[in-house]
Amino acid sequence: MTVESMPHTVHPMPFTRIELVVLSVVDGRLAVLLARRAGAPHKGRWAVPGGVLRIDLDRDLESAAQRVAQERLNVPLPHLVQLLAVGSAKRDPRGWGLSIAYRALLPADAFHPVAGKRVEQLDWFGVDDDLADLAFAFDHRQLVEQAVAVVRHEVERMALPFDLVPEKFTLGELQATCEEVLGRTLDKSSFRRKLDERSLVVPVEGEMRTGAFRPAQVFRRA
Amino acid sequence: MTVESMPHTVHPMPFTRIELVVLSVVDGRLAVLLARRAGAPHKGRWAVPGGVLRIDLDRDLESAAQRVAQERLNVPLPHLVQLLAVGSAKRDPRGWGLSIAYRALLPADAFHPVAGKRVEQLDWFGVDDDLADLAFAFDHRQLVEQAVAVVRHEVERMALPFDLVPEKFTLGELQATCEEVLGRTLDKSSFRRKLDERSLVVPVEGEMRTGAFRPAQVFRRA
DNA sequence: TGAATAGTGTCTTTCAGACAATATCCA
DNA sequence: TGGATATTGTCTGAAAGACACTATTCA
User: Fold this and answer.
1) Interchain CB distance below 8 Å, A95 and B60
2) Do the chains contact at B13 and A82, CB–CB below 8 Å?
3) Among candidate residues A163, A200, A175, the one with its CA nearest the CA of residue A23
4) CA of B189 and C1' of C21: distance in angstroms?
5) pTM of the model
């Protein structure tokens, strides 16, 4: 067996982790799921949920992220999207650390945060209200900020957060979700015009949402 | 020393590499720099230049990418931007492979491709003309396609490829470069209007490029 | 009937593409 | 003077924001 065919033995490889930036709308505001670290390093500080990449268990990065979601949060995450990779000698005091960060949107009502292994608390934090003075672990503040920026940028461009609404929804619900993600109001007429022009949603024939007032047409994603 | 503080010893870590997708304009067309592999695996196939992440040498991923550029291409790459991380058990026959891919723009006239270690040939390939039937190594076709898509998307949005033009340039040269990257012509009036509205360039007072015909104002990036 | 939400219509501004017109150099 | 490029201007249509208007339900 040549050196070329067994590169693992030649150079030490970095400590490689998966980090999950999970965003949701809680109490009408965009929020991120953070875990309070129970052990060193950075004990007591807040980190996004994550875990070690296990090449003996994980076929690829995607399935590693799914496994971590299942282990840490006990919930599967639809539409995990890679955010970025960060790696340096200094970001983790235990040694050269490499993290592949993923982002996901999760309906808050489908999930109850419960503390688990190496986690004292698990809770939602409003990204505009609760993060300014929060003590983050590692470089996780930057991870959260990047994920928030990307998601808001996408919603601005009408990449709709379907992961945050039920399969069937009214246009009012969809618009309200977008407004909560962005933290600002949207114009109803413009919003609906763009939905129509780009054929982003289709009506569910016959189904109406009958609430307190005038019934609303029910839609699905196109 | 606890297990928690020495995680490297607990789980095997993936074989981690840096890959560089280097794009340029050659003969008026967007081109990518590819290296023909001299050894197994995938001997004779074409790959983007890359190298192993060396945590004993590299402070972080950025400097690792710079070191690889220096070693493989003998040229520093301005504005390396991370493209994505890919990792799976199957993409490299030598074992679980993780690659962090970076992209960069490099003026072709400032660089002469020369073969080097583990590389038979190093050459530019037109991304629209020469790649269709090319035998790529690993998953590098997808890396190239993603980098091309991202760069073209950026130029469409007037994120200008300043790395491909000299420090001082005329608007005609800048527009021609954008057109070559995109593979289509642009409207002169719209192009200049956007440059002006967004203050992307500033004139170099007094300096004019005097060529065969009417002299042109020289600009710098803002 | 009024409150509250659903759905539509219109006006205006902005912005980008198309295209034309003028300006200035060299051969 | 004509050819080629530089620079500016005008027209038009698409897209989006602002805002108003109508529709439907229940209390």
Assistant:
1) no
2) no
3) A163
4) 13
5) 0.94
